[in-house]
Structures are given as C-alpha cells and as structure tokens.
Amino acid sequence: MTVKRSGTYVILMCLCLSGCLSSSQVPIYNKPQPQSGQPIKLPVIADATNQEALQRLEPEEIKPDPLRQKRVSLTVEGPMGHLARCLAYEGITVILDDESRGLEFSGKFTNTPIDRILSAMAERCGGGGVVAQRDGYVYVGKPTEGDYDVAVFAVPSGDATDWIDVYSLAGSERVRANGIGDLIVVRDTAETITRVRRFHEAVSGCRREYHIELVMVELTDSQTRSLGIDMALSGDQLLQWDGQLDPLTGTFTSSLQATLSGILFGDSQATQGLNAEQVTLHLVEGDEATLEAGDEINVRQRVASPEGTVTDVDTQVFQTGLQIKVRAHSVDAGKARLDIEPELSSVREFVDGLPTIATRRIKSQVYLGNGGVAVLGGFHSSTTQSGGPRLPGTTIASGIDEREDDRRFFIFVRLRFEDEEEDEEIEDEADEDMADEDEADEDIDDEEDDEAADHDPADEDDADLDDDDWEDLED
C-alpha cells in the first residue's frame, strides 16, 4: 500500500477488534487519570436495561470531536487497515473488525476533514456501516449481527490481556474478548453481556487498598552499615526487619520512622536523632499516588563585561526537590508489587552565575508482603569530588548539616494492607473463642440443672426438724 500525506507523523498503534460493532451497542469508557494521592473510581458500565444511563450516553455520541474536523491530505491504496494506521498518525485511534480491516480501499483526499474519511470507510464496509466514538476511540464496521452485543470495560488494574480469560469465564461459549491497553472488549449474546457487566462491577469493587509508609532520611556511613544497607546501593534492597505487626490485633504497633530509631539508637522514641520525614500514601490497587515536595529556586543570570564587571540580566525559576510516584499491584493474597519511581533534583549557582540542574531518577519494582520494608538508595548527598551540587538541597528532608560530607540520602518504604487471610484467621479465632464460651456456659447450665434435679426441697424441710419434733409429729 502506498501512502502520500503531509503533516507531522506521531507514531501510534492501530488496534483491531474482533466482531462487528454498532453505535447503539458500544458504550466505551476511558480509565480516568488518577489525581495525586487520591484513589480513582472506575466508571459504572451502563446496563442494557438502565435506560437513564443509556440516555446519558446519547449526547456523547453526537458530540463533535474537534480532532475529527482536522483536515489532512492522503492518497491511499490497499487494505483499509493501512488507512486506519495513517489516521493513527494524526491522533485518531480507529478500531476495525476482522472483515473490515482486510477490505481494499483506494482514494485521494486533499485537505479533507478526517470525519469525511471515516464516513467513506463506513460506506466501504457496506450493509449500513457505522462510525461510533467514545472518548477518543473510533469504531468503524458493520452493524452487530444476530443476538450479539458488544461492551467495553476498563480493567481494574494492569494490562487488559491479563484479564481476557477471567472475563471470558463470565461469558457464554460464544464469547470473544480482546484487550486494548487497559480496556477489554467483550462480544457475546445480549443476555450474557449483562452478566459480564455485573461481573465487572463486582471485580472493580474488590480492589485492595494499600497504605505505603515513606521515610526520607539522611544517614552517615556508620548508620548505613548498622542498618544492613549495601554501601554501593543504587536501586532497591529488601530489608529483613520485623514488620512490627501485632498478631493479636492485626495492627502496626509503631511507625516506620520509630522502627528506624529503635534500630539505630535502641529507642523508638529517639526520633530527634534522625534527620528524617515520614509520609503515608493511601492508594487503591492499580492506581498511582504521587508525592511532591520541594522549593522554587530563583537563579540569577549574569553577564560579564569586557571590563570585568558583572551585571544581573535576568532571574530564572527552577523547581527542585523530591517527587515519588508509587503504583501497587496485587501478586497474591499475601504479597504485592510496588512500582516506585523517585526523582531528586536540585539547582546550584556557581560563581559565574550559570545554574546547574542535578537530577537523579531511580525506577524500581519491589515485591513486599504485609509489613515488608525496602530501601531505595543511590542518592549521594555530599558534594562530589568534581564539584557537583548536593542533591537533597531543599527536599522534604532539608536542614542538613553541610559540614557532614559522608551522608547518604535513602527512601525507606513499608507496605501495609488488610490481609484477607489474617482477617479470616482472626475471625475464626474469635468464633472459636465464642464457641468455647458458649460450651462453657452450657456446661455450667447443665451442672446447675443436674444439681436442681438432685435437690428435693422436702429434704431441706426434714433436715430442719430435730428428734423431738419428729416425736411430736408421730404423736
């Protein structure tokens, strides 16, 4: 296929779906972007019987997309799937069914709106081809045939390909599913699609919540060794520490910063001995939380004259400090994977007035159980031998004694979450205790009943009579 076009190329991927699609049967949703430190909620997928929800979709269907009004020049000849790839270069993601993707298409478009090209593709599909759009995804193909229906879901976490088998189990024998990024497209009978939607809502509501403790701290070389940290660490290292999890209550008895102080100074209350700050991030499985702390630095720009005088000509503002991005994924019932990306930057002004920006970024994946601790290192705090700037500068762990040249900057991470197995064990133990108490109460009641059965009130009356009384009664 030959393609001649004008404009800037932005390489995107053209994705293809199985099955034919209809504008009235393809509710499509994009996963919302998470805000800093805030868990996001998945959109509720409209049920076929939910008329109110379907009515809310109608304005989105007819809402004009500015990108589809973009004018392009194309000369195409070949399978229609190649044309879809050309439109992907223009920022339009076109999804075709299997049959439409292989149809031959030829045409020359000069300064033509993309919307008109999409209409031409729908006409080429024949049989009343349609163009349907939801949130940036465009579907082109024939209407849905027979009793088939199509629905698109944003998977709870990870990639959609990891969820295909799971969602297929909720469908019928005729189910067909495809993954597109974090979206999964399910094609099945209209009756079964309703069951898949309910399954999706149930799965979306079962995402685990995580609490991630972060401690930013500067340590001397001797403190680094005492904590068992590799002196040449540049990345992540798991630490075999006691998680301080009380097995009876299922709660943590001390903070991560207090645990650090206890190991270093033998006193968990001696937090004043640490140049550290602690922050706890709360997020839902599959979402991202971001911590940002730092300052704006004004760096003067100077010009030296031939006579040797220096003149300030401008002031430039730089953002410095610490940024940490964290995303959590469940591995099994008792373990999770944390994707952590800390970035540390600072700005220093040299004698000649030229600013130098120093940035260090580390990407790590650590697998932790409940209460597990890891440390991220590789951020050297002290001034390098080459005269480079000290990285922490004005980070959240500021107030550093600059006379110390052997300090290293570390980020400690501890993962906490509600362990379903532990909760079940605690509930089972509580149930067993209650059952034991009930049995003990029953035993006591049985003993009291036996004593009451053996006890005759007449015997007590007889015991109160002495021999003379008996003689009087006999008389």
From TrEMBL:
User: A GO term (biological process) for this protein?
Assistant: protein secretion
Q: Where is the signal peptide?
A: 1-23
Q: Please tell me whether the keyword Membrane is annotated for this protein.
A: yes
Location in the cell: Membrane
| One GO term describing the cellular component | type II protein secretion system complex
Q: Where is the Type II/III secretion system secretin-like domain?
A: 280-392
Alphabetized InterPro entries for the sequence: Bact_Secretion_Sys_Channel (IPR050810), T2SS/T3SS_dom (IPR004846)
Q: Which family does it belong to?
A: Belongs to the bacterial secretin family.
Q: What is the protein named?
A: Bacterial type II and III secretion system protein
